Structures are given as C-alpha cells and as structure tokens.
Amino acid sequence: MKRSTPLTRNIGAKVKYYRKLRGLSQKQLAAQLQTNGCDITETMLGHIETGYRSTSIFEIDKLAEALKVDYNALFAQD
C-alpha cells in the first residue's frame, strides 16, 4: 500500500524536482541531510520521492534547507 503526504501536494515529486534542479543525486542529498542532523538514507529519500514514505515536518524543513528552497515551495499545491 502506498503511504504518502497528500497527493494534491506532491511533496515527494517536488523534492525530486528540486534535487535534480540542483544537480544532486539521492546519495548526495541524503549525505547532506545526515550531516545536518536528519537521519534520511538514500533508500528513504527514494521512498519519499515516489510517495511510499511520508515525511515529518522536521524532515521537510531539513529537505527545504538542503535544497535551498523556501519551505512553502514544497507545500504549494500544483
């Protein structure tokens, strides 16, 4: 069963979009997150991007910080 944040928000797809826009691999982004105190592995990041794993507010905050985007950019409706 797929578990995700609300589909109308597509947070995982936005994470993937901004990650690729910044030229980062999942491994590189996961390493940045871990350096900043957010224990997300490369596998977990892949699950977030595909909607198989939901994210906490803390993780979303750290993702926005690592991707250098406004926090609200990940929550904006499509």
Automatic annotation (TrEMBL):
Keyword Membrane on entry: no
A GO MF label: DNA-binding transcription factor activity
PROSITE patterns, alphabetized: HTH_CROC1
Keywords annotated in UniProt: DNA-binding, Transcription, Transcription regulation
GO cellular component, one term: cytosol
Alphabetical list of InterPro entries matching this protein: Cro/C1-type_HTH (IPR001387), Lambda_DNA-bd_dom_sf (IPR010982), TransReg_Diox_bact_type (IPR050807)
Gene3D superfamilies assigned: lambda repressor-like DNA-binding domains
Ranges of residues in domain HTH cro/C1-type: 15-74
Name of a matching Pfam family: HTH_3
Keyword DNA-binding: yes
Organism superkingdom: Bacteria
Source species of the chain: Dysosmobacter welbionis
Name of this chain's protein: Helix-turn-helix domain-containing protein
